[in-house]
Amino acid sequence: MPDLTEKKNVEDVPAQAAAAVAEPKPEKARSLGSDAWQDLRRRPIFVISALLILLLVVIAIDPSLFTSVDPRAGDLRNHYLTKPNYSHFFQPDWFGYDLQGRSIYARVLYGARASVVVGICVTLGVTILGGITGMVAGYFGGWVDTIVSRVTDIFFGIPLLLGSLVILNAFTSRTVWSVVFALVALGWTQMTRVMRGSVITVKQADFVTAAKALGAGTGRIMFKHILPNAIAPVIVVATIALGGYIATEATLSFLGIGLQDPTISWGIDINSAQKVIRTAPFALFFPAGMLSLTVLAFIMLGDAVRDALDPKLR
């Protein structure tokens, strides 16, 4: 007599296989970064600002892709009264000429390099310096926190623009790196305060207590457990501050204390254009407009990143 139980088990194999295939797999847990990226991709403000910044970076890396004109070559036959000519795009006379007959279009493109380098280098410098000091003060607390906080208060009381004027006056030749040094020397205090507050909040979490109980060293706890969970506010502040550093560099160059010739800067061109603002306002409009658009793009990017990383806004 045939074994009905064995036959039944054999017949159930395809059904069991189909059920296993149809059963949905559990979703993989996503990190804060992946969640933020998924949120950012759906924000038009992020897409627009990111494209503007990408274009600006490409211009800063190789301005010759957009013009073949030497921005320092002047021709007095093309003086500042020569108005912009819009008959052909991306030509030397598209933005007109400055007082020395130099193409404003070429100078606006080449001026992006100094601004982008200063903005990125200052942001990296203040983020690293302020992040380390803030993390040390927030994690160890006690007298270490007291000393770091008091030093931070001293530097925080010095206005960034005024302090930079004093520091840059000590340099006989002011280049991009001297401006970066002056801004980093005075701009790290904000990052220190942000990182300190974030670390104080994170170090009280259960996973940090568990890591200490398991015998993890100080360095592993700080850089493996605390830093990844405390860095989000610093990233937001750094992204927004980058545009402010670009504006500060332009202000210093406009006042004659920042970058100097032969370096090309939007601040230098704005300073030169103010002399002919009534007769040739376009000489002021284009470098100032490019500066404003750049600062706005970074502020928009910072706002989008802040909203994506803030769990309260989800």
Automatic annotation (TrEMBL):
Transmembrane segments annotated in the record for this chain: 45-66, 116-142, 154-171, 177-195, 226-247, 282-305
Domain called ABC transmembrane type-1: residue spans: 112-302
Cellular compartments annotated: Cell membrane
UniProt xrefs under PROSITE patterns: ABC_TM1
Region of interest called Disordered, as start-end residue ranges on this chain: 1-26
Segments of skewed composition (Low complexity): 12-23
Topology of the protein relative to the lipid bilayer: Multi-pass membrane protein
Superkingdom classification of source: Bacteria
Keywords, sorted A to Z: Cell membrane, Membrane, Transmembrane, Transmembrane helix, Transport
Membrane listed as a keyword: yes
Ranges of biased composition (kind: Basic and acidic residues): 1-11
Entry similarity comment: Belongs to the binding-protein-dependent transport system permease family.
Protein name, as recorded: ABC transporter permease
Organism: Kitasatospora cathayae
